[in-house]
Design a protein that fits this description.
Layout: E1 16-26, H1 32-43, H2 53-79, H3 88-104, E2 109-118, H4 122-131, E3 134-141, H5 148-163, E4 170-173, H6 181-196, E5 204-210, H7 214-218, H8 223-238, E6 245-250, H9 263-269, E7 277-281, H10 290-306, E8 311-314, H11 322-335
Parallel strand pairs: 1-2, 1-3, 3-4, 5-6, 5-7, 7-8
The chain binds ligand L6N33NVT and fe (ii) ion (FE2) (2 copies).
Ligand L6N33NVT is lined by residues 24, 26, 39, 48-49, 68, 72, 87, 89, 143, 147, 149-150, 210, 212, 223, 251, 253, 284-285, 289-291.
GO molecular function, one term: lyase activity
InterPro entries: Ferrochelatase, Ferrochelatase_AS, Ferrochelatase_C, Ferrochelatase_N
Protein name: Ferrochelatase
Length: 340
């Protein structure tokens, strides 16, 4: 038998289990070229943009990538973590991975994080984990609600890397956790605690989810339904009436119809209906990022106050908070069952 093994087989490291947290990605800097490189990779993903490739290529390369990097770079600059010189999404995702590593403990488990677009790339981290001896790897896309535009493409990217490996590790993917009782409880408590800490009583609390083209819902993406279910379960957990916790969809991109009601239009309309005090959170995001900090906490507030609103508060994502990490730890331990 040994004649068939590579000469250095004796140096194969001890078998370990890998846990890889996956998130969307972010530019390496706020300047034009860094943002352009990131947006180009992101918006070239056919899971994200389903428009015919021949049609999309000139629109993306000649129009969008000429103007959008400046606009997005300016938005990133407003929320950039200057001390670490990184975007909040990467800082927080790293915190989550480090915190989880401490919780799972032991030298037989390797916890790391990777991004679908930009750095650290999914391929580089998977290869590092394999070199460290991880023969079993759990992929954890950090999206509570499943979407082909996020969860599926994160997994695709990991499988693309596995395709290039002669000796592939065994792999599992963690499912979306939009109705996981622990997630619902954690999210609901973060809303109740967030609201109780405010110096005002909100007339309405908005759960603002990242949007997507309506077309994707019609083609069978379950994201929209899972968003509504998360909010319904949270509302039931809190015992709130239907009108107290609203669903809206943010971050519209391009000219097509996206999921409605739109967050910005809702914030504009609420004061006119006598609802002048709001709290808002973004449950589709496991970590605060440009879409929550710049678009909602800053831009959303401006829109609301400009329309006659009186009080506005943004409730942060679960991030690497103790309760958020309890939830991630419980989910990961459950998915590792049989491997540990
Ligand atoms: C163009 C179509 C897009 C779809 C569909 C989409 C879905 C989607 N996205 C997230 C989570 C995040 N998106 C983020 C940024 C972002 N998203 C799009 C476009 C689509 N997203 C763009 C063009 C951008 C870049 C920012 C900009 O230029 O305005 C981020 C933040 C990244 C960061 O660095 O902070 C996250 C997270 C979900 C959950 C989702 C599901 C439907
Ligand atoms: Fe997005
Ligand atoms: Fe946005």
């Amino acid at each position: 038998m040994s004649a068939h093994l590579p000469p250095d087989h004796t140096s194969v490291p001890k078998q370990k289990i890998g846990v890889l947290l996956l998130n969307l990605g972010t530019p390496d800097g706020t300047d034009y070229w860094n943002v352009r490189r990131y947006l180009r990779e992101f918006l070239s993903d056919p899971r994200v943009i389903e428009t015919n490739k021949l049609l999309w290529w000139p629109i993306l390369n000649l129009v969008i990538l000429s103007f959008r990097p400046q606009k997005s770079g300016h938005a990133y600059a407003q929320i950039w973590d200057r001390e670490k010189n990184e975007s909040p999404l990467r800082v927080i995702t790293r915190d989550q991975a480090e915190n989880l590593a401490q919780r799972l403990g032991g030298e037989d488990i390797v916890v790391d994080f990777a991004m679908r677009y930009g750095n650290p790339s999914t391929e580089s981290v998977l290869k590092r984990m394999q070199a460290e001896g991880c023969q079993k790897i759990l992929l954890v896309p950090l999206y509570p609600q499943y979407s082909a535009t996020t969860t599926a493409t994160a997994n695709d990217k990991a499988f693309d890397a596995l395709k290039t490996m002669r000796w592939q590790p065994a792999v599992r993917t963690a499912p979306a956790y939009f109705e996981d009782p622990k997630y619902i409880e954690t999210l609901a408590n973060s809303i109740r605690d967030g609201v109780e800490a405010l110096p005002f009583e909100p007339d309405v609390v908005i759960t603002s989810y990242h949007g997507m083209p309506v077309e994707y819902l019609k083609k069978g993406d379950p994201y929209h339904c899972q968003c509504y279910k998360t909010t319904r379960l949270v509302r039931e957990y809190l015992g709130w009436p239907k009108e107290k916790l609203m669903v809206t969809f943010q971050s519209r991109f391009g000219p097509t119809e996206w999921l409605q009601p739109y967050t910005d239009k809702t914030l504009e309309a609420l004061p006119g209906k006598g609802l002048k005090k709001v709290a808002i959170l973004a449950p589709a995001f496991s970590a605060d990022c440009i879409e929550t900090l710049e678009e909602i906490a800053m831009g959303g507030k401006e829109t609301f106050m400009h329309a006659g609103g009186e009080e506005f508060a943004y409730i942060p994502c679960l991030n690497a908070s103790p309760s958020g990490m309890d939830m991630i730890e419980a989910m990961v331990r459950r998915e590792l069952m049989g491997w540990l």
